[in-house]
Write a structure and sequence with these properties.
Elements: E1 4-5, E2 18-19, E3 46-51, E4 66-74, E5 77-86, H1 91-109, E6 119-130, E7 133-148, E8 166-170, E9 180-184, E10 208-223, E11 228-231, H2 238-254, H3 260-268, E12 304-309, E13 315-319, E14 333-338, H4 350-359, E15 380-388, H5 393-403, E16 408-411, H6 413-418, H7 420-428, E17 432-435, H8 448-464, E18 472-473, H9 482-491, E19 494-496, E20 500-501, H10 504-507, H11 510-520, E21 525-530, H12 534-549, E22 553-555, H13 557-560, E23 572-575, E24 578-579
Parallel strand pairs: 5-6, 15-16, 15-21, 15-22, 16-17, 18-19, 19-23, 20-21
Antiparallel strand pairs: 1-2, 3-14, 4-5, 6-7, 7-10, 8-9, 10-11, 12-13, 13-14, 23-24
Length: 580
């Protein structure tokens, strides 16, 4: 690989790094693996190792953790976004950051001739857990194919293209050497440090295609019992950031990835890592990223993406792509351990120290309480099943348990009397059991006494099965009139219909059931299916998978209505947003 000088400066005009080997970006899982050159410590107080993959853990290892995902597209380019519902404190900051990545990606692909060739993918993982403290990290990766023009092809960027780094020639450090390439900003507007923006300008036809891959990571540490959450970088003090920058810069020199001369001025104004020597008055914070290189010049990028406070007391540092090493070398990461007790602690803020104490305690992770689903904020949908229990209800319950989805069952009273254990299982597994009449007649065609008998016999059969008396009623065929609604109001019950009729009773076809459900579901929908038909039950796994991939959360009908259905007694609910 040819040497290049990097235009991202750690101190104004003082740090130019020359890359000569490659470094891989972080992975969502794996163990810390040092590279070949990891024995040299730039400071007697610390040991620095280059990592092939930062140590993270599968999210399933955090009891009660609830991740969310959603698929979207920008100009036909796919976006795969992630989020968090539990612990609740992580939801808002994670969504804000992921939305920023999606917005930046959308702007970038709008400049491409074929946007659908690009993609944005997010990989979440856990970077530590003990007690009620959890570390959560997301790696966002953008892949955009760009044209690499042949030498005779003239390149002209669109004047409306977003500002991104471009390559220009800068003089070599020594006279007589050929100029080398540097990343210099295309305009005076700095890019946000929280969004990875690839060079997405459409180039002239000709040349070969090159896939630009840019990674950006963010980590948060939350104490969910206290309801607090912090960006991992805020847990480092300013001096701690400075010392980490100096440590890593010296380590890169020791590995031969940068030239010693290029960091001499930087290290000259920085205190020795681990020492308390102050910087000279008027100089920038040692090793920090100043807000500008000089008056009138533009802001410099952040050096770090994230830090992990590890259970053994060490610190894992994810360095921003393109800051210390050339962008094509990915996002390097490093493990920093202390050789003198208390030195890692000296890098942290008081909040960072408190969270680190919990993470190194060795305590088993506390189960995260599941928050109630706020269907005003999330895209909720309710699966409902009529006419059971039947011969396929057990299979359906197994599927729902495997998918961790709760549903609402509108049961036939005489079927409940024939199989009370199945109805008891429905309730025991967290599903809602509701009334669908005793024998499935059109209730408005009955006398008032006939209506009441159908409802009361079914309520009693449900109670006899050991399940609470239901407060939801689905009139067979969706038939209702004012007499029925008045009766339901007197009984403290709510009529529940639907806005997505899968026609599964008619289709008897798995593929059609899947397609009709997925195509017609909207936020707040109530989906009508029947657990007495095998094709309906067989369609459920794919329906759940596809709707969850679109960002839907499955809830029961009471959850869809906010948990309290009493305001709707004597009324008809067709969906979350259609109540009459």
């Amino acid at each position: 690989m040819k040497t290049r000088v990097i235009g991202s400066l750690l101190l104004a005009g003082s740090l130019l790094l020359a890359g000569c080997t490659s470094s891989n970006g972080p992975s969502s899982t794996g163990s810390a693996t040092p590279t070949e050159h990891n024995s040299t410590s730039p400071s007697p107080a610390f040991q620095v190792e280059s990592l092939e993959t930062p140590q993270t853990t599968l999210l399933e290892n955090s009891p009660g953790f609830i991740a969310t995902s959603r698929e979207a597209d920008a100009y036909g380019a796919p976006l795969s976004l992630v989020g968090v519902r539990a612990p609740e404190a992580l939801h808002a900051p994670v969504e804000e950051w992921t939305d920023a990545q999606a917005e930046s990606f959308t702007v970038d692909v709008s400049q491409l001739a074929v946007p659908s060739d690009a993609r944005l993918e997010m990989t979440p993982s856990q970077c530590g857990a003990a007690g009620s403290v959890l570390c959560y990290v997301i790696n966002s990766q953008v892949r955009i194919p760009l044209s690499v023009p042949s030498p005779e092809t003239e390149i002209s960027a669109s004047p409306s293209a977003p500002s991104h780094p471009t390559e220009t020639a800068v003089p070599a450090d020594n006279p007589g050497e050929a100029p080398v390439a540097a990343n210099t900003p295309a305009s005076s507007t700095p890019a946000s440090s929280d969004s990875a923006s690839p060079a997405a300008t459409s180039l002239a036809d000709g040349g070969q295609q090159h896939v630009e891959t840019l990674s950006k990571s963010k980590a948060w540490i939350t104490n969910f019992e206290k309801g607090t959450v912090a960006d991992s970088l805020t847990l480092l003090s300013d001096e701690g950031k400075a010392n980490l920058a100096a440590l890593i810069a010296e380590h890169l020199v020791s590995e031969g990835k940068v030239e010693a001369e290029s960091v001499q001025q930087f290290l000259a104004v920085s205190p020795s890592p681990g020492s308390s020597t102050p910087a000279s008055e008027g100089s920038p914070a040692p090793g920090s990223v100043p807000s500008s290189t000089a008056e009138g010049s533009e802001a410099l990028p952040e050096i770090f993406d994230a830090v992990f406070l590890n259970s053994d007391g060490s610190v894992t540092v994810l360095v921003s792509q393109g800051s210390l090493l050339p962008s094509e070398e990915g996002m390097p990461s490093f493990l920093v351990t202390e050789t003198v007790e208390g030195k890692i602690a000296s890098l942290l803020t008081p909040e960072g120290l408190a969270l680190r104490d919990v993470l190194i305690s060795g305590d088993e992770p506390t189960p995260i309480p599941e928050p109630p689903v706020n269907c005003e904020e999330f895209s909720c949908v309710a699966l409902t099943f009529d006419d059971g229990p039947g011969p396929y209800t057990a299979q359906l319950l197994d599927t729902l348990a495997e998918k961790d989805v709760k549903a609402t069952f509108f049961v036939i009273g005489r079927s409940v009397a024939n199989d009370p254990a199945m109805v008891a299982r429905e309730a025991q597994e967290g599903h809602v059991v509701a009334n669908h009449s005793w024998s499935h007649p059109s209730l408005p065609k009955l006398s008032l006494a006939g209506m009441e008998t159908e409802l009361e016999q079914t309520d009693q059969a449900i109670e006899d099965a050991g399940v609470a008396r239901p407060f939801l009623v689905r009139p067979p065929y969706g038939d209702e009139n004012s007499t029925l609604l008045s009766l339901l109001g007197q009984r403290g019950q709510v009529a529940v219909l639907w806005d997505v009729d899968t026609l599964d009773w008619k289709n008897r076809d798995v593929s059609k059931n899947i397609r009709s459900t997925v195509d017609n579901t909207r936020p707040g929908s109530i989906i009508l299916m029947h657990d007495i038909h095998p094709e309906s039950v067989q369609a459920v796994p794919a329906i759940i998978d596809q709707l969850e991939a679109e960002g839907y959360i499955f809830v029961t009908v009471p959850e869809l209505l906010g948990g309290d259905v009493s305001p709707y007694t004597g009324m008809t609910v067709l969906s979350q947003h259609n109540i009459r």
